[in-house]
Amino acid sequence: MKRIVAFVLIVVVSLGVMAFTSPSIVNNIRLGLDLKGGFEILYEASPLEEGGKVTSDALTQTAKSLEKRINAQGTSEPEITTEGTNRIRVKIADVQDEEAVRQKLKEPAVLTFRSSDGCKDATDYCKVELKGTDFKEGGASVVFDDLRQPVVAIKLKDANKFAEITKRLASKASEGRNRLAIYMDEKMISDPGVNYEISGGEATITGNYTNAEANELKDTINLGSLPLKLTEKYSQSVAATLGKLSLDQTIKAGIIGTIFILLFMLIVYRMPGIVAAFSLIVFTWVLLLVFWASNITLTLPGIAAFILGLGMAVDANIITYERIKDELKSGKSVMSALKAGSKNSFRTIVDANVTTIIAALVMYFLGESQVKGFALILMMTVVVTIITNVFLSRWLLHLLIKSNVLNKPGYYGVKERDIRAL
User: Fold this and answer.
1) Measured CA distances, 109 to 58, 236, 270, 352, 421 (Å)
2) What do you get for the CA distance between the two ends of the chain, in Å?
């Protein structure tokens, strides 16, 4: 009876913990725009100037620039990813003014170096002295001075032009107009002072920068040296009400399907069916916990992978229980049938899940966007299935059988007349 009490306590306490934590976990899972509402755009990047190239660094920095622009619009948690050699995919949920965000994203990132020469006051940087295209592509780098402080080294295409600008600004130091402010779009990044003429087309930007700040400034200048034009190749919008409807219908279908599965397991497999039902509930809770802890964005394809994984978890239980039933029908004791059935079914279950992981890996590395999400969640379901519906399920069943109270074959879906004498 101790083992029966232990089984009951494990089930009751676990169900209580899952019931208490599930609402918080579910409410904090990130939802994709197809469930939450929003829009998605696929951009193709091309250089603004003839002869330019779309490098991987330029593409990455452009994606970072897009994220900063979106955040400046008050939109939280945009999902921006680079694809291939020249594409950027943008996903934004909960957008109030979609057209305003679209227009802002289309504009190329504009880097300018400005001075206050001829402006109203020394802090009014109204004169554009240099543009991003005046710098050599990838010419900015982080170096360290004699005091091991990070500074940003830059290279310009026209050394004479830079020498003229720095000479002119250095001569205005007494007026406090010798600063050359660095702007990305209309946001000032830094405003270093110019104290002397700089010839040779190379200079360093000094300041009390941390390593992170120096690298951010370097990336900003390199991005501005090759501004990319973004052409919209594909877009889709999902209204918030439509997204909520899709989520509600998907959850409803999943709940109905799960109820039928649990009833089937209870009717056909009796006591193992109870263990399977509990294992499937644990499987669902653990997977939701993984989504929340990993900060994964859940989409409709992801939910489809979730439900497919649930079916595979059921399949793992069915394979095991059918093997146990076969062993019981051959005349073995319940404990012997459990050991033999578990051993014979394990290889089949592993083989099936390994092939699933192989297929998911191919989809993940060759697919894009939502295909990757589907593949990732499918692989997660395989891992959680092995933990909950193979090891946990068998351990609980072993606990029940060793109690010596539930050792009748009928408790395991096998009729006495079907048992063959050894």
Assistant:
1) 11, 24, 65, 49, 81
2) 30
The answer to whether 80 touches 63, Cβ cutoff 8 Å, is: yes
DSSP state of 210: -
Residue 249 contacts by C-beta under 8 Å, 6 or more apart in sequence? none
pTM above 0.70, yes or no: no
Question: CA nearest 275: which of 144, 398, 129, 418?
Answer: 398
Residue with tokens 């056909």: 268
Sign of CA dihedral 295, 299, 303, 308: negative
Alpha-carbon separation of residue 310 from 45, 146, 262, 270 (angstroms): 40, 61, 11, 20
Going from the first residue of the chain to its last (422 residues), give the mean pLDDT of each consecutive group of 10, the final group possibly shorter.
84 91 87 76 80 77 75 66 86 72 69 86 86 79 84 86 88 85 82 84 80 81 69 77 72 83 84 88 91 84 86 87 84 83 85 90 82 88 90 87 76 74 50
Q: What is the rounded (10 degree) CA torsion for 104, 50, 125, 209?
A: 90
> What are 252-259's contacts with CB under 8 Å, separation 24+?
254/303, 254/306, 254/307, 254/310, 257/307, 258/284, 258/310
CB 175 within 8 A of CB 120: no
Q: Rounded distance, CA 375 to CA 372, Å?
A: 5
Closest CA to 251 of 201, 302, 325, 193: 302
Contact criterion met (CB below 8 Å) for 320 and 338: no
**DSSP labels, 108-135:** PP-EEEEE-TTSSSTT---EEEEEGGGB
DSSP, res 192:
-
Strand partners, 45: 230
For residues 353, 359, 364, 366, the Cα torsion angle rounded to the nearest 10 degrees is 170
Both tokens assigned to 380: 């997660």
* Residue 14 and residue 198 in contact, taking contact as beta carbons nearer than 8 Å: no
